[in-house]
Amino acid sequence: MSATLAPAVDRSPAARRRGGARTTVTAGTWRLVRMALHRDRTALPATAAVIVAMVAITAASITKGYPTAASRQELAATLGASPAFLALLGPLQATGVAAVSSWRVGLFMIAAVGVVVAMSVVRHTRKEEEAGRTELVRAGATGALAPLLAAGKVGVITAAASAVPIMLVTARLADGRPGAWWVGAQYFGVGVAAAGLAMLVAQLATTSRTATAMAAATVMVGYALRGVADVRQDLGWLHWVSPIGWAQKVDPFGTPSLWPFVLCLALGVALAVVAGVVALHRDLGAGLIQPRPGPARAAGLRSPWALQVRVHGSTVPTWAVAAGSYGLIVGLILPSIASLLTSSPRLEKALTALGGASGLENVMTATVVGFAGMAAGAWAITVTMALVHDESLGRLGLVLSTPVSRGRFAGAAAGLLVIGVVAIPVVFALMLAGGHLMAGGPMPTSLTDPLGGALVQIPPSLVVAGLALALYGWAPRAVVAAWVLVVWGFIMDIAAVLLGLPSWVAKISPYALVPRVPGETVSAGTLVALVAVAVALAVVGALGLRRRDLING
Amino acid sequence: MTEQPVEIRDLRKRFGTVRALDGLDLVVEPGQVAGFLGPNGAGKSTTIRVLLGMLKPDSGTVRLLGGDPRRDAVALHQRLSYVPGEVALWPQLTGGETVDLLLGLRGVRTDPARRDRMMRRFELNPTTRVASYSKGNRQKIALVAALAADVDLLVLDEPTSGLDPLMAAVFEETVREHVARGTAVLLSSHVMAEVEALCDTVTIIRAGKAVQSGSLEQLRRLTRSAVTVHLTGDPAPLAALPGVHDLVRDGETVRFTVDDDATGEVTAALSTLGPRALTMAPPSLEEMFLREYGDELAALESDDEPATRRGSRR
Lengths: 553, 314
Ligand SMILES: Nc1ncnc2c1ncn2[C@@H]1O[C@H](COP(=O)(O)OP(=O)(O)O)[C@@H](O)[C@H]1O
Ligand SMILES: [Mg+2]
Prior knowledge:
Order of helices and strands of chain A: HHHHHHHHHHHHHHHHHHHHHHH
Number of helices of chain B: 12
Shape of chain B: elongated
Helix content of chain B: 25-40%
Strand content of chain A: under 5%
Structural class of chain B: alpha/beta
Radius of gyration of chain A: 25 Å
Radius of gyration of chain B: 23 Å
Oligomer: heterodimer
Bound molecules: adenosine-5'-diphosphate, magnesium ion
């Protein structure tokens, strides 16, 4: 049979080195980069497209909603100067269309790009290692640092894939140049810093889930802290504790400054170097944060429901506390809003028409509680996608090979989704209330206002969870499409404030259907209808699961 | 190729409190197929990962193809191929893409004709996506990538654990072709028949330590052969011989075991007793293996408590 094989190898040393291939710890990096980009060939452009679309839509809505310089100056003097928007978006530095749009999408989107980049880096480092694929890669002629370095480069490319189009979109606006370059620098700088952060976190955590959660939470805490710095003059130094704050100091439309951008890049490189040192000194598969040994016996772990809670339930407190930390910070600065108001007579006048200081507090509370609702929807989608992942590894088949019916399994999944969708906004509201009370907020409204807002967010989040389940039941690989409801809600949250789009466009997202609470009146009919839709979608999903093939039985 | 493919001396590695390797010695000579035997958790995969530079040894010396497994990892990995025990692949890629990728990662320029022949031999379709592959098919992909190019050393960690007997036979045949061209092989396994069929030397590992090693011949010599014979005469003189053990008589049938170095004396004594239907079986690898683990087996049988595999031997 040796005829089927090629003739014997040339074993000369020259042949072994195969044309002088590099043999350093970074050998093979570019091959891994190409491979990662190949695998991300749809996800990366799609993410960048969504981010860029948000910027473009916002710019269009500003152009249409505030066509004159006078109208934009009015916006700057009222909303732009309001502490609520200061905390969420930072100060508005100029009144051109580009300046206003950049401010409106602004820092929150920059933080979002940071999270996206961090998630990408973790996916290409710890997730690969966890899955056992890094073992195969490292067994090739691949340097010990190549997987890490390749992931870092993919992270930088992901950052650039968002930053460059955003820069180009901004540059096309009337007053876009030269601020556009600086806007691009903000996104890119935070992206590079986030890539470095994720590289390091991926060395410390032994599971990709933990690594992603740690990196995302760090970025969001940075975003929140700079919000505190914007509202509380005495805490201005908080601008300097995170790259999001540095990005703000780049100040594209005020007095642009290069060196906060350089600081972002330097931090990213420094974190990457530390990550590399850790990587060189640790074993494959190891990290600093080791999973603790668990119980030897399955006490109470006897049903699909208990299994769901045990396997995916821990994500609920993680997400709730991560979102809630943001709520806590917002709660702490809420009282400053009233005191800042008196310093701007013109703003005070504009807002008295809206209902005064409490009106502004309400806007702020309703807006951030709305974020918590979207976080609940996002959580529901990620858990459902994890169910699909379980299934593709044959785990669902194992469960269904026991006398557990598919209907019962779907019920267990739905139960878990309901718990998370309720818990995340409620914990958020409680932590916001806790912060507000600590800062001297009044009882009982400090508690009831955010709690009411959180409860209103539950029905639309249930609809998102229901859609995820329906897709899971019929076309499990399409669960990712449920993101549309959340992302659309986010876009509309931006666009609807500023611009009267045809109402049906906004109403595609369930989040746009509920009133902003506190502030607006609640119609029970809408909420009940949303819950009914969610239940119907979940039932459709269960029916689909009962009749479809498993991905991997 | 004069350097030793694998040389491991007194290797120790612990994970927290678990002593995975506890003074292991393992050698693979040029051109030889070395079997690496041990039950689950004995430390086979850990040894291989140390050898590939993915784990840092706590102490001991490890040489791979004359180089240092960590410092020279990249250069060394160009000269070997590895099939892990658990093959995880990228679900988005096709089988053909995966093989090309794995070859590419080793710095090998793929010979497409040879790759395709190898895929056909292992009955793989290069255009199928890996997501739909079974464990056996994923393992076959890793095997094709490992065997579709010539290397100095094959490192195979339980490579046939997911294969059906037909594919296992194709695997053995392909490995033999590589060996014929001078490739050395380190084959970890717990399939005795496979090791017996392929390997020149065997190392049996227990609790992170080699408890037996040598050529199959040498190991056989350490173990007794089983003799079955029909005797018309009285077997008592046989039982008195020093090399004979465990003699039982069942009518005319006599069974006993005999030390390797006593074979001559015993056959001489037998010939005087009117033997018929004599069979003398050399020990199988399985018997040798069970001898090393006999105490553990006994513990399992005599006791419902789980046996402690990490307990000291004898
Ligand atoms: N990364 C690790 N962390 C902790 N313990 C490990 C790790 N890898 C292996 N072990 C332990 O080391 C021992 C040897 O494992 P392994 O080398 O996989 O055995 P084998 O391949 O012979 O089945 C086992 O007790 C196993 O649990
Ligand atoms: Mg193993």
